[in-house]
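User: I've been trying to design a sequence by hand for this structure and keep getting stuck. Would you show me what you'd pick, starting by listing the structure so we're on the same page?

Assistant: Good idea, let's start from the same input. This is the structure you sent:
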């Protein structure tokens, strides 16, 4: 049986030896695949973006728009996290704060979309509504 001091010395030797390996010097960044919901046929729909956990959502969107290389107004676009069913609206939050990792399925899509609403008198009204707002707020804006 090993003594406690032998285990501590062995642990420290392994720890010190591990600190000098190339693994610890590698980047902590990863590729995040983001799907883009745009109207251009024949254009690429998924883009890999190199990110790290300390990058904020606004920085992710900026890198993504640079990668897309399509000249248009992207100001209405936001990131939708498919697995969590939520918009990433706090652009100053980091990926780590949201808990986003490499396997996250993010969609870069417009936040405002057309909606056809049938009224009780059977008339249909077309409205542009915010899908990123809370449902109650959107309903109150429609009314």
């Amino acid at each position: 049986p090993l003594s406690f001091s032998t285990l501590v010395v062995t642990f420290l030797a392994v720890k010190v030896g591990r600190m000098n390996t190339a693994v610890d010097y590698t980047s902590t960044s990863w590729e995040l695949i983001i799907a883009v919901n745009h109207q251009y046929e024949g254009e690429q729909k998924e883009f890999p973006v190199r990110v790290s956990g300390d990058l904020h959502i606004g920085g992710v969107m900026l890198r993504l728009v640079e990668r897309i290389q399509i000249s248009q107004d992207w100001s209405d676009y936001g990131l939708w996290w498919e697995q969590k069913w939520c918009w990433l609206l706090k652009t100053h939050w980091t990926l780590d704060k949201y808990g986003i990792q490499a396997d996250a399925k993010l969609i870069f899509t417009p936040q405002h979309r057309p909606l056809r609403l049938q009224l009780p008198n059977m008339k249909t009204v077309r409205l542009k509504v915010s899908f990123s707002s809370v449902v109650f707020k959107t309903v109150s804006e429609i009314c």
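That's my pick for every position. To get oriented when you compare it with your attempt: The longest helix spans residues 4-19. The chain has a mean pLDDT of 83.
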